[in-house]
Design brief:
By secondary structure, this protein is of the alpha+beta class. It has helices at 53-64, 74-83, 108-112, 120-134, 142-160; strands spanning 14-19, 25-30, 45-50, 69-71. The chain contains 5 helices and 4 strands; from the N terminus they run E-E-E-H-E-H-H-H-H.
Length: 167
Amino acid sequence: MVRQGGVADIFAPVCSITTTKRRRFFWAAWWSAPPRKAPFQRPDASDGGAATFDEARAAAEARAGAPLTVIDPTWARAWIQILRGQAPRFPAPRGAEPRATAAPEASLWATLGVTRDVTIDELKLAYRKRALETHPDRGGSADEFRAVVAAYAEARRRLRAPRRKKG
């Protein structure tokens, strides 16, 4: 490969291997171009179901027809997310500081996708729906899921509290 400017870009064929929910091994391999985040570079081949890490690596190398360098499993996880129709997520680099300006907190009602005049039963249904959407095991973020759980607890508390009459 040659970059603009004529400087040779060194690239070794690579393979990313990760475990699946069923405790099997999924691999994704890039031999024609290196993986990149944006836009995501699709792997040249991928497959799942290997019983061991070594079995997954051997299958990837057999498909590539050459030895592969094993890289971070984040890339295989990102490809799995794309196959599921989700946007790929990459963890923040180590040592990265959180943003100085945080987004304003959404109201607990907006977090759950309901209005203030919701019934307990409607609240329960909305919570279940949002919990499934944001749960980390289903592709959501842990922080977002915690916010939904906290919003649900507070909403239930507020709905059960006796209302004071203004007067």
